[in-house]
Amino acid sequence: MEIFDILASAAFWAAAIRIASPLIFATMGELICERAGVLNLGIEGIMVAGAFAGWIAVWAGLPLWGGVAVAFAAGAAFGLLHGVLSVPFGLSQHVVGIGITLLATSLTFYTYRVVLPEVSSPPKIVAFAPWPVPGLSQIPLLGPALFTQTPLTYLAFGLVGLVSLVLYRTPLGLALRAAGEAPAAVAAQGLSVTGLRLGAVVVGSGLMAVGGAFLTLSAFDSFFFDMVNGRGWIAIALVVFGAWRPGKAMLGAILFAAFDALQIRLQQTALGALVPYQVFLMLPYALSILALVAMSRRAEVPAALMVPFNKGER
Amino acid sequence: MRLEPIAAPSLARRILPPALAILGAFVVAAVLARLAGGAPFAVFSGIVTGAVGSKFAALETLNRATPLIFTGLAVAVAFRAKLWNIGAEAQLYAGALVTAVLGTGALPLPAPLLLPLICAVAMLAGAALLFGPAVLKTRLGVDEVVTTLLLNFIFLLFVSYLLEGPLKDPMGMGWPKSARLVPEARLPRIVEGLRLHWGFVLALIAAALVWVINARTTLGFEMRAVGANREAARFAGIPVTAVTLKTALLSGGLAGLAGFSEVSGLKGALTLDLSPGYGYSGIVVAMLALLHPLGVVAAALFVAAIFVGADAMSRAQGVPTYLADIMLAAALLFMVLAILLTKFRVVRD
Amino acid sequence: MAQEAGAQPVVLRLSEISKSFGALKALDGVSLSLARGEVLALLGENGAGKTTLMNVLFGQYTADRGSVEVMGRALPPGAPRAALAAGVGMVHQHFTLAGNLSVWENIVLGTQSLWRGRIGARAARARIADLAARFHLAVDPEAKVGRLSVGERQRVEILKALYRDARILILDEPTAVLTPQESDALFATLREAVGQGLSVVFISHKLHEVMAIADRVVVLRHGRMVAERAAAETSAPELAALMVGGALPESEIAPRPAGPALLRLSQVSTRPEGRAPGLREVTLSLHAGQITGLAGVSGNGQRALSDLVSGLVAPSLGGFEIGGVPVSRWSPRAAIARGIGRIPEDRHRTGTIADFDLTENAVLETYARDFARHGWLDWRAARAHAEALIRGYDVRCPGPGTRIRLLSGGNMQKLILGRVLETGPRIILANQPVRGLDIGAVTYVHNRLAAARDGGAAVLLISEDLDEVMKLSDVIHVISEGRLSPPFARGAVSVATLGEWMAGAHFAPAAAGKTGGAHHAA
């Protein structure tokens, strides 16, 4: 059957890993925010801003990693705005997040039009090239699939390990986990809940933006207006699906990306002739909703998620 | 220095947030206009004249405000009950879809029967689209923000499929568009010759009705109670789940009306670009209005003016129209920040 | 103040501390000192300022005026970090623990620089084990705090302070959540601590404990220090009078014989919720004209029972009758319809809607039945009703249009009381009805409940304050891990016996183990 042929091919899995990479950045970023107690609905806009910022920086002459850094900075800036409004000021995280998404998206489109007023199609840059890992990329099947990816993909997977390490084995991670569960405990131990949450949102938003930049610097080589296309919202679903654990969330992202890669390929098959292409495009979003429903018994929700902490309030 | 809660904020303090929001939006716009090489004053006067400077412009603003009033009401009703309906966009298209399906000749009824029928079914369609996420929320605790958002993408793809397939205009030029509505299914113009249609009046009536529901009915009381403190409402015997679902029906229905109004009153057919994001702008409208139904009308007019004015200004001066979106996003954020000023006073120790 | 030359050095000195919250002056020029190895009791009724004073010391609040000196050095205000570094450790009344982390993680939290790479779990765990042994604080370092009992969590809180080398231990109402036997164990720990050179400040409103453990007593009233005594030179009645500012009103609420049973539970079980136990084969009768008191340490099923009677939860097993009629469909609305008046445990979270005004809160339960026709609300009638409640129940407020969050706790509770009692309920659930109220409001509420009882209502009183239960109830049950003791008539049972039942003794041995609550086959 055609599906099995697809599933057995290295090209399919390579595509799945590639599609998963921006999701992994975005999911790790959102996970850090939520573990500290802040829901960051600005993720979609921040990814758009990151995609644009990284790309335009490279187009203006910076090296690729410089573009990644610029993207991170752009995300961190929006994260700082979100953090200041929702943490010390304690404003509704739902509304602030949506405002940030609207602001980041509109600022991106505006800047694009200002910087490139006359273009009919956006200029291309030289994106990251796949870098085969010496030795490992020679393994049959696994080699082309896993070890012939761009450096940003390797970074994404390394990030999962780093986030896990920090979260579970360092004092900082301990403090973050406590801040999202019982900020009163954190304050009573002399730490600053505001500082921890702000830091988490800033760093998390930077990572989200790098996820956006992956699209323009690694997956493709140009910026399109509809590029992010809901990946931010999908990342939020993946955080829930992964029960707020980095490793599980990564697996969720890969599973999701595999379905996405599958639907692209199925469109070329006999099935694709029968079923309208829109159905295939719907699958990722429908899958995300299913993932949320499946994980609906959220016993592992950080207890203080979305609850502002007011020091010394009577 | 610390923050101290205010007992009863004065009227001046309560007006402050929308005022500050608008002011802040203009300041941001001025900075960005300058960066784009435009002169801020020229940009602003361009927006103002573009919005209300001529009869054509003013009517255009009212037309643009109509769907915003509906989606603004939809969001306000939902947010009041702490139901985070971000899916007004899809609910709008649901209403629009129904209008296109029923209004292109399928039902041979005269206008006085056909219009109310389509209107009612459009409301039901919008309500149905929010009902699913609402049930998931009440039954399984699934966050409705993400489900309604994802549903936006899914439903728009569905509409795209229909417009390229079963609903495609047989006389169309190739791009996806439904057949034109029959005259009986069209909302008439308010005055012959002017572009303003009865959808605007319908929107005003809807705002008044929502206001009455909120202030004087048991349903309004229950919605407000559930939004203010769900636990206390449940303890007091208010059927929280039923109220949440009723809220969803009302909210989705209002957004569906937006779609009906646009297809039947303005465009006459369903296209994929029917809504330039009215569902999302409705969120800004609702917040600027502090979730008050009558405030929604004022806020919708303001937002519409900004959009219409920015379109005209952009054609004349070259500053990108996205300035309008930035202004509204900034207004939203300033607004939320300024609400703090109504609740707290800075006190020097 | 008496401080003889040659006595132990002063480790803590608070001077002229004043603190206001808006118009409310919580502390007014309070000064006290603590010597090394001393146990100082801070005594006062609810609202006297004891917790506020200690929160100023610990840096959670900043005083408007006054200074704090620890070991002779001035303590910078408003910084828990500085207080911790100076050797002040506080065990709060509401525990500050993260349920998703283990015991040792909670203890280690904040003790290391955030820039450090590793936590060093093994060394930490070893040190915790050593401290636990030295101070008789038995607890499993690997256990998730979310699963611990209240008594165990308090031990974690104390270990937190000891781990940080606290020289001054502040405990805020520590025995409020313990059985009498657990309290004794706590006192043993405190004596050990004092023996090792620590000093203790012990906040309480329970006189007999203060007399048992303290060397010196400071009495606060309305934010002022009104007296200071050596424990050996005073007595409980004198302290009580100082606390209240006069002779304690001896309100004797005489016991009454039982009327017919208005509510009956027979072998009722409910599902546990999270870590809170469900009811296990509970048999209970509430009789007209009687106050049935429920004694027990918090977290032993009181929530399950009150949720059941309130209508929030239905029994999964067993028989449930009201007025002799079995209950089929159950909800808060059904409970109200069947004549149950409910005073909830938490007036802020469950009892009122903070942003609604007094009128809206007054009709929160009855709007549909009494103030609406065909879905249309009559706000004029609702307002009149609210005004009647305000007058009848002495609710101090600017008017029925005031937002209820501006009222004091006592006035809020009086409004809730009025809302409940004015419907003439046959059964009244009073869940922690006087928690956090000043003595005037306490007496008012108690008198109203007694009056309702005299009028023929059956009152179920749930309280963590054993004194309150013993003073008010005609009949007392003890609840422990979801099981109910048989009824005891007031006067026929001693505190010690009740304490034993509260600690779980005398119940038939459970089939399942203690952890996770019992699950019943459907």
UniProtKB/TrEMBL annotation, chain A:
Protein name, UniProt field: ABC transporter permease
Keywords noted in UniProt: Cell membrane, Membrane, Transmembrane, Transmembrane helix
Membrane-crossing segments per the record: 6-26, 38-58, 64-87, 94-112, 151-168, 198-220, 232-259, 271-295
GO MF: transmembrane transporter activity
Keyword flag Cell cycle: no
InterPro entries xref list: ABC_transp_permease
CDD domains, per the entry: TM_PBP1_transp_TpRbsC_like
Species this chain originates from: Rhodobacter xanthinilyticus
Pfam families: BPD_transp_2 (PF02653)
Cell compartment(s), UniProt: Cell membrane
From TrEMBL, chain B:
Main location: membrane
Keywords on record: Cell membrane, Membrane, Transmembrane, Transmembrane helix
Transmembrane segments: 15-33, 65-83, 90-107, 113-136, 145-163, 196-214, 235-260, 280-310, 322-341
InterPro entries per UniProt: ABC_transp_permease (IPR001851)
Taxonomic lineage from the root: Bacteria, Pseudomonadati, Pseudomonadota, Alphaproteobacteria, Rhodobacterales
Entry-linked PANTHER family: ABC TRANSPORTER, PERMEASE PROTEIN, GUANOSINE ABC TRANSPORTER PERMEASE PROTEIN NUPP
One Gene Ontology CC term in the entry: plasma membrane
Pfam families named among the record's database cross-references: BPD_transp_2
Compartment(s): Cell membrane
Membrane topology, from the record: Multi-pass membrane protein
One Gene Ontology term of the molecular function aspect: transmembrane transporter activity
Protein name, as recorded: ABC transporter permease
Organism: Rhodobacter xanthinilyticus
